Amino acid sequence: MQSAGFGIAVDDFGTGYSSLSYLRRLPLTTLKIDRAFISELPGNSAIASTILTLGKQLGLQIIAEGIENKQQLDWLESHGCGIGQGFYFSEPLPLAEFEKRYVVAQPSKVGL
């Protein structure tokens, strides 16, 4: 799958059924830090910091879920997490609204 460009992510890492054993058994590319640990930032940062360090040492991409404010984003960026999602960036959108806001139309190259 990786040679075809697909990756495997562990969603909500650190909660529920996400286990450290997955880090050894699966060919993971990404860890997504659960929003429960992001919501406590920047004050209670021990778990988010540990997940970031662990992911970096394993060569995994880290995504922070549930970013709701600038302080959380600043903390994550200062600790090397450059990918995030959450209401700070946008509320959930219908497809048409998402495309209107974020998809840039590319000029057609047909006939060139």
UniProtKB/TrEMBL annotation:
Residues 1-106 form the EAL domain. InterPro entries: Cyclic-di-GMP_PDE-like (IPR050706), EAL_dom (IPR001633), EAL_sf (IPR035919). Pfam families: EAL. One of its GO terms (molecular function) is cyclic-guanylate-specific phosphodiesterase activity. Gene3D superfamilies: EAL domain (3.20.20.450). It comes from the Bacteria. This is EAL domain-containing protein. It comes from Shewanella fodinae.
